[in-house]
Amino acid sequence: MQEKILILDFGSQYTQLIARRVRELNVYCEIHPYNHYPAPDSSVKGVILSGSPSSVRDANAPQVDLSPIKGAFPLLGVCYGAQYLAQNYGGEVKPSATREYGRAMLSKVEAANPLICGLSQTTQVWMSHGDTIARIPDNYRIIASTEDVPVAAFQIDGEKTWGIQFHPEVYHSTEGSQLLKHFVVDICGCKQDWTPDSFIESTVRELQDKLGNDKVVLGLSGGVDSSVAAMLLHKAIGKNLVCIFVDMGLLRKNEFEDVLRSYESMGLNVIGVRAGDKFLSDLKGVTEPENKRKIIGRDFIEVFDAEAQKLTDVKWLAQGTIYPDVIESVSVNGPSATIKSHHNVGGLPEKMHLKIVEPLRLLFKDEVRRVGRQLNIPMEILGRHPFPGPGLGIRILGEVTAEKVRVLQEADKIFIDNLKEAGLYDKVWQAGVMLLPVQSVGVMGDERTYENCVALRAVTSTDGMTADWVHLPYEFLAKVSNEIINRVKGINRVVYDISSKPPATIEWE
Ligand SMILES: Nc1ncnc2c1ncn2[C@@H]1O[C@H](COP(=O)(O)OP(=O)(O)OP(=O)(O)O)[C@@H](O)[C@H]1O
Ligand SMILES: O=c1[nH]c(=O)c2[nH+]cn([C@@H]3O[C@H](COP(=O)(O)O)[C@@H](O)[C@H]3O)c2[nH]1
Ligand SMILES: NC(=O)CC[C@H](N)C(=O)O
Ligand SMILES: [Mg+2]
Q1: What is the CATH code of the structural domain delimited by 196-382?
Q2: What are the binding positions for ATP in this chain (predicted)?
Q3: Quick one: which ligand is closest to 465's CA?
C-alpha cells in the first residue's frame, strides 16, 4: 500500500504548494476538502491542516471533525490550521493589532523540538494572517516565536500535534522545506520512496490489471500531458493503445509533420488526421472569440469521434488529466468564474460511450515532466511551451482564414526560432505571435503599404494562472521585428505586448 500524507484543505491559496513541497521530498500526499476527507487507514502517516481565507472567529468558519486524527496520527496545522487547533481546544484567537504579511524572523524557543531541531536559531519565515493566537491551552508549549507573534509555533504535550503560524510551503520561508522534512520524514516516518521510477512501475502494473487485453484510444496533442500518458499506456499495453492526432489546420508551421514523426520514433501507434478544411470552413465569418472556441471544440470532437468509430472493439478513452484538474473539480472553493472556455477540445468523454482511464490524475505538471524524462520522451516534446487547444485560431483576432493562418505561421516561426537560437526559449514559459485585425500605413521601397500588424507575446509563469511579460533584450526584439517585416508578406508593423496577467490574459482571445 502506498504510504501517504493527507492534507486537509480549508481553501488556502497555498494548499497545492504544501502538496508540491511534500512531493518534492519524494513523499506521496493527497489533498482533500476539510469536510469530505476519507477515513484515515494504516497507509496514512500523518496529516497537515492548510491555511484558509476564513477566520476561526467567524460564525460560519470551516469546522472539521478531527476525532479520527488528532492524537492518533502526527498532525501539523498551518496558519488557519494552527489557529483552529488553539481556538477549539481551550485557547483564544484574536484579531492581530497589526496584520502581518510577508517576511518575519523566527527564533527557536525549544531548540531541540523535532519539528524545528535542524533549523537555524533564527530563520526567515513568511507570514500571511490577520488573526493571532492570543492564548494557548494549558497543555500546549510554545516552541518558536517572532518579535510580533509569541505563538509562532507550538506542540501539544504528549501528542504528536504541532501548529505553526507561518507558511513553510512558500519559497520565502528559507528553511520551510527542512521543517516539512522534519515533519513527514522524522516525525511521520515516511520512507521517501515516491519517485518517478516507482510511479512508473506501479502505474504500469495497475494499468495492466485494469485494462487486460482491452483496446484504448487516446488523443495526442503534441503537449506534455497526453504524450506522457501515451507512453505510460504504451509501456503497459503496447499495441492495444491507438493514438489519434488531429490537425485542425491551426497548428504551428510544420508542427503536424514534426510531432507525428517524433511520436512514431517513440514507437507509438498514431493515426494522423488532417481536417484543416473542415475547421476553416466552419469558422468562416465567425469573429466572436467564444463562438470560435465553441466551433473548434465541437469540430474536434466530431473529427475525433468519427476516426475512433473506424477502430473496432475500443473499450477505453485515455485522458491526460493531471492532479490540479482533479483538485479544481473537488475544491472547497468550487469552480471559478469562466473567463474563457479552456479545455474546449477536452469535451470527449460526454460524447463517446467509453470508460475513462487517466494514468496521470495524481501528478503535478513538474512530476509529469520528470516521469516523461524517465520514459525517454524527447526534450522537444517535454520542454515544449504550452499551446492552447484551439491553436492559432485564437491568435488570429477576428475571422480566421487560410491566408491569415499562413501569415501567422510564418511570423510565429521566426519568433520561436529566434528564441531558440538566442538560448531564450527555455527561459520563457510561453511565447507566440498574435495577428491583429488592424492595418496601418507603412513605407517599403519608397512605396506606401497598408498591411497588418502582429503583436509578440512572451511571458513567465508557473501555471498560467498569473503571468508577467518577459523583458526580452531590445537587440533581440529588433532582430525579430526586422525579420518578420522583411520576410512575411502582409505584415508591416510589429509590437511587443507588455501586459501582465491579471489584468490581461496570455492569449488575446
Ligand atoms: N490536436 C489534437 N489531436 C488529438 N487530441 C488532442 C488534440 N488537442 C488536444 N487533444 C486531446 O485533448 C486533451 C485536452 O487538450 P488540452 O490541450 O486542453 O489539454 P492539456 O492539458 O494542454 O494537455 P496536453 O498537454 O496533452 O495538450 C489532450 O490531453 C489530448 O488528449
Ligand atoms: O488547452 C487549452 N485550451 C484553451 O482553450 C486555451 N486557452 C488558453 N489556453 C492556455 O492557457 C493558458 C492561460 O491562458 P489565458 O491567460 O489566455 O487564459 C495559456 O497557456 C494559454 O495558451 C488554453 N489551453
Ligand atoms: N493564511 C491563513 O491561513 C490565514 C488565516 C486567517 N484567515 C488569518 O487571517 O489569520
Ligand atoms: Mg494542450
Answers
A1: 3.40.50.620
A2: 221-227
A3: 2
